[in-house]
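Co-fold these.
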Amino acid sequence: MWDFISKYGLIALLVAFPLTYAIIDVAGGEGLSRIGNNLVAGLSNGAIWALIALGYTLVYGIIELINFAHGEVFMIGSFTAFALYSVLGLTLVTGPLGLVLGLLVVLVLSMLVSGSLNVMIERVAYRPLRGAPKLAPLITAVGVSFILQNVGILWFGSSQKGIPDLIRAQQELFNIGGVEVSRADVLAVVVTIPLVYLLTAFVNRSRLGKAMRATAQDPEAARLMGINVDTTISVTFLLGGLLAGAAGLIYALYQTNVWYFQGFTAGLIAFTAAVMGGIGNLRGAVLGGLIIGIIQQISDNRIGNEWTPAVVFAYLVLIMVFRPQGLIGEETREAG
Amino acid sequence: MAMLEVSDIHTFYGNIEALKGVSLEVEEGEIVTLIGSNGAGKSTTLRSISGLSPPREGSIRFEGNEIGETPPQAIVQLGISQSPEGRKCFQRMTVRENLELGAYLRRDTSQIRDDLARVYDLFPRLEERERQKAGTMSGGEQQMLAIGRALMAQPRLLLLDEPSMGIAPVLVERIYETIEEINRQGTTILLVEQNANFALGVSKRGYVLETGRVALSDDSSALRDNPDVQKAYLGG
Amino acid sequence: MSKLAELRNARWAPWMPAIIAVVAVALFPLFRPPLDATMSDVIQALAYVVMALGLNIVVGFAGLLDLGYVAFYAFGALAAGWFASDHFSKVNGGEGVHIGVSDFVQTAFPQGIHVSFLLIVIGAILVTALAGAVIGLPTLRLRGDYIAIVTLAFGEIISRFAANGDSVIIKGYALSNGRESISPIDQLNLPLVGEFDSATNLRFYFWTALALVLVVLFVNFRVRDSRLGRAWIALREDEVAAASMGVPLVRTKLTAYAIGATFGGIAGAFLGVYNNSVNANQFQFGISIFLLSMVILGGLGSIWGVVIGATLLSFVNTFLIPDVLDKGSFNDLLSNVGLDFTFGEVKFGVFGFILVLMMVLRPQGLLPERRRTAELTQGVGGDEAIVETRA
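Predicted complex below.
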């Protein structure tokens, strides 16, 4: 009974937000184009959150730990992407073919850097603490997060750093009834959809994917199947990091700036998305990411972006209290 | 040389010594049972053999190789698989997925298919529920699934941890008949049970474990006739 | 028995090192000029000790990872900002409210609410205790890692309200001055002692800070050895077992949050007054982490350990980094090797590194609480019942 109430209550609370503004717009004679633009921008933001949220949910699903440093892995992905612009000679005057090929290379490399970083974090900060009380790896995660933020400061300074708008992100690509769809929006979709598809296929159909699912449900039973749980965990961190790296590039191209602190806020927002969808659940992470993206965009646009974190975190607290399993949620680990 | 030789192992949980020098042997082709009350160390023994709780002292040799420090996944590779305490089926996966996971280390696809058929032959109930999620099945069905899953690894030594726990007696009989059949088909079995009746009925030899030590070791028929054993474990 | 042996066996003997240390610290200002950078550093450290001890109650005693502790500091500081300045300038028809303040303040600052420091501290205690309970409320049914996130989220929400406070107008008053300071704040004014003046003499602030630390230490020791303290330990080690032994979970947890929070409030109020300004930039998540590293370094749940950890890290922050490591010669040395950064820039990375290092190498901290050592090194207790009875 409560399950029903909390689920639809949450949905209602989520829908109410854009709906309220839609009604305000229409009542004010503005029509639906503004809210439509909000939705479109929200979905492309949401793609970034979805990619990062998948990283949180994959790791939480398998070892029941919040990878607190995951936001910073995303930030390093952005930083790497930007650094690679100059290495590859990508500038505002690079031709379209060169740009596409160059960005593809940047995508792969940023993903690899973030992926390896995430694997390293697990080896150094989490694995030694496997048997310790849950407080310990959480604290270490916070520590790693701070170390990485500092790496960011040393790399590109402590203020936001504008970077070249390589793809003319805000340029409108096409228009549907007054609603603009920009290049950045299309980019977000074009990169995210294949990645999510590949990830889902991998997890559901590959041998390692089966090992991941088995380990998530019962690590000891997984060992009894001959699964190397340590390797499986590392692979999980790798996948999460790869996605965060991709998100980092999209973010860099979309926002045209990078900042050492972007991972902290992004991390919390993406984590909210993961929890909203249902932690441990891949579809949930994607759904949550898109929803949070919309909420975030509307908040930025209507209330002011200095308040947006407060809005998102308020949703987070509400979810944690009233429906911690999120929208689609399921238990991550059963007893026996 | 016996197939499995456990020599004087001491296994700890943190600072608590659960096994205080356990030794046993299993010859190829046998069914050997380990009985004892709750907390005696029966499951711990199986966990030590499977590498989940490696012993701090002592040795475990399988087909001549020392496996006391081998990681669990390698032990499966060597030919030992276990249907663990509490069954531990992957609740959100189907019967078929569970069974296929049993064959995780194997690459011989056609042989795997044959073995799957064999498991369905032994446990027709599982074939009926092939696409059902393990978590929705009864205790008895999950027990069959756990045993079938362990068989999918093509083990030479099969470890069974309390297959009768929490299962209706009629079903237990059926499971034990199947255990005998599995043994007849060539798999060596080390069986841990609290329910000594069934265990001693199906096995050739038995060990009685008490607070981490082997208290008695004999042929199962002798154990069944032993008045102390009868009083403590056979309700007599 | 010899005199020395007699002394050693006296009941208060274990307290001797602490008593000597406290006396030494108390006498310290008499050996320094009234306006002294080192004294200033020590005052700052004492304030951090108070806050770290507060966090220690929540994280160390009760085992609830609160990552939003800076919120309580914010409440305390804002209490000072609201009730010891001209912020509420239109109150009382422009006449202001003055309670227990010096004549100087009454004449120089006729507007706004100006209230005696003791009252501010009491107010801060009440507000933060309530805030602590409110923040703790949603976490009651949550697991450890979720508690961390929820408290962090709360901390950020409150921090946002403080930072954007200049645009939150209620009845004509802004919540805060946003990223600009509420300033000036009245000087400390204690009954019988009169008003301090931080521009000329830091000594009285020093002794006030020390007095706060002593009060807080007293509360800590009493609470730790009380039934409540034992309930917290039971809660920390195994919540389920604690509940089955009759520990009232809700009340025990909320009390931990509330009491822990009050220390943050007290320190916040003090620092607001001492720094003569209250500013949202002071309420960053980094402070929560800074405090956490103090507690971890000193030893989770260990009162003296946390005092040491807080003092050490505070000095690293206010002295070692700016005055030693970033000073001329050492800095030149680093640049010669090609490392072009100041330690001030990597400060938080270093604190993060301390966290990682401590948890991996010595999770029980520098001066461990005895129980904690057993829990962390031998795997006894903890959240999972590792010791199950297996057949």
